[in-house]
Specification:
alpha+beta, Cathepsin B, Chain A, 6-stranded antiparallel sheet
Length: 482
């Protein structure tokens, strides 16, 4: 009888232990951005707001995933903390390109994106470019029709898969049918998503160091002072318009605003409603505006000769993130078939989801088990921290892989205090309808030993939501010299 009792106790303990381990290792997706969920509901109901009361087009839509917020102190520390002038204007230091007009089209997000990228190149590299907003507006690749809105996540997906930028003269505005396949003139390898869009010092420092930044906010003409070109919204409405911050003035009087904010100070904003609007196309946005959202710096552009090929499965870029219960560490991996024309891996790209994301990159060649991305020969290990959240590209030197054989890029992610460390693409109706996955391509693991095939785990049904998951890991390569 005692023996039977002991056996029962051991069985109960074993069941409890297995369940506990299973719970601890439960794979979860990050909750969708609540603003995106509301937008999706309005989209399905046909109640989206596409124009202002004074008939100006809008166009910003919330993304499905939002980078997690961090403390203000960390946000300031993230950008190179420094003494800043009380007033700064990129227009006075040859750091902006001309104001443009989005016309009767919800493409503000495309104009804000190119305003940031063009400003970076002019301000930091003394290069003057006029990039095509229309190519991004038409060929972003997402489910939204042309002129029906977008966001910086969509811009980043388009740019980091090397669909653009292209020259304005090759695909001119306004929104005429673009010719596919025109030359891409820069390779975008980094995009910085500021972790707190209401952190005034962080925004100033980003503008001062890298040029104009993309910012989203809520526009309603009821909050605009047409005499002083000043805007302040004290409501908590969701953002609906994207513009570019090109400077600031700490002493811009609070009395200039239609509704008085708590203090002085305003960002100088480049809009995309033409030069005849506002102060020659510009206006002032209060530091205290309650609707500021999605602050992004497109602060990197390299010659197209840097790499010859991208290995990737995620044309839609960052759509969500996944992780294991109560752990800020997880592994992601992609398995690729090496091409004889791109058999020298030079760099790896991925999304760092929080400041100081820790990563260890492993590259394996000649995989022996198609279900295990670490079953090949380890060719390279690179560790570090990504200080800025956003899309990053990490050099791995020269890693030769075997043509026509499978190789893998494996990354161990640690996102301090954030429990969804692995960035992924997935299929969502009305947003990424055509996202697709393949078996034995993308993998996720809690320990780097036991792997889950994302396509097998979540499925690849083209008529279901929230499946077809791919890990956001890219490999950049060139052809090895003989």
């Amino acid at each position: 009888m005692k023996k039977l009792g002991l056996i029962l106790v051991l069985m109960i303990f074993s069941i409890f232990y297995v369940c506990s381990i299973g719970f601890a290792q439960e794979l979860k997706k990050a909750p969708l951005n609540p603003k995106f969920v509301k937008w999706l509901e309005a989209k399905k109901a046909g109640t989206l707001e596409l124009k202002t009361e004074d008939v100006h087009p809008l166009g910003y839509i919330p993304p499905s995933f939002k980078f997690p917020k961090v403390s203000k102190s960390l946000g300031i520390n993230l950008v190179e903390a420094q003494a800043l002038p009380s007033k700064f204007d990129l227009r006075t230091v040859n750091g902006t390109t001309p104001v443009r007009d989005q016309g009767n089209c919800g493409s503000c997000w495309a104009f804000a994106t190119m305003a940031s990228l063009e400003s970076y190149l002019k301000y930091k590299k003394s290069q003057t470019w006029n990039f095509s907003e229309q190519d991004l507006n038409q060929y972003h690749g997402f489910s939204l029709p042309e002129c029906q809105g977008g966001n910086a996540y969509m811009s980043t997906a388009y740019l980091t898969r090397w669909s653009g930028p292209v020259k304005e003269r090759d695909v001119p505005y306004p929104y005429v049918s673009a010719t596919p396949g025109v030359p891409v003139v820069k390779h975008i390898q980094k995009v910085w998503f500021l972790p707190d869009p209401k952190n005034i010092n962080a925004i100033k420092t980003a503008v001062y160091n890298y040029g104009a930044i993309y910012i989203a906010f809520y526009w309603d003409s009821a909050y605009y002072n047409y005499t002083t070109y000043a805007y302040y919204c004290n409501s908590t409405n969701y953002a609906n318009h994207a513009v570019a911050i090109v400077g600031w003035d700490d002493n811009f009087p609070k009395e200039n605003f239609k509704t008085q904010p708590p203090g002085n100070g305003a960002f100088i904003i480049k809009n995309s409603w033409g030069k005849s609007w506002g102060d020659s196309g510009y206006f002032y946005l209060s530091y205290y505006d309650k609707t500021l959202d999605e602050a992004v710096s497109f602060y990197n552009a390299q010659p197209t000769t840097n790499y010859e090929r991208i290995y990737e499965y995620d044309p839609f870029g960052l759509v969500n993130a996944v992780g294991y219960s109560n752990s800020d560490t997880a592994w992601g991996a992609n398995v690729f078939l090496a091409s004889s024309n791109a058999d020298l891996i030079k760099a790896v790209g991925f999304y760092a989801l929080v400041p100081n994301t820790e990563y260890t990159i492993y590259i394996y060649d000649n995989l022996t088990n198609s279900a295990n991305p670490r079953s090949g020969t380890l060719k390279k290990t690179v560790s570090g921290k990504a200080s800025k959240p956003g899309y990053v590209t990490i050099s791995v030197g020269d890693v030769k892989v075997t043509p026509n054989k499978r190789f893998s890029v494996v990354i161990k992610f640690r996102t301090p205090n954030y429990y969804y460390p692995v960035p992924v693409e997935e299929r969502i109706w009305f947003y990424t309808d055509t996202a697709s996955c393949g078996m034995k391509q993308s993998f996720i693991s809690y320990d780097g030993s036991s792997w889950i095939d994302t396509c097998a785990y979540w499925g690849n049904d083209p008529y279901e939501d929230y499946n077809n998951v791919n890990v956001n890991i890219k490999a950049y390569a060139v052809k090895a010299t003989q």
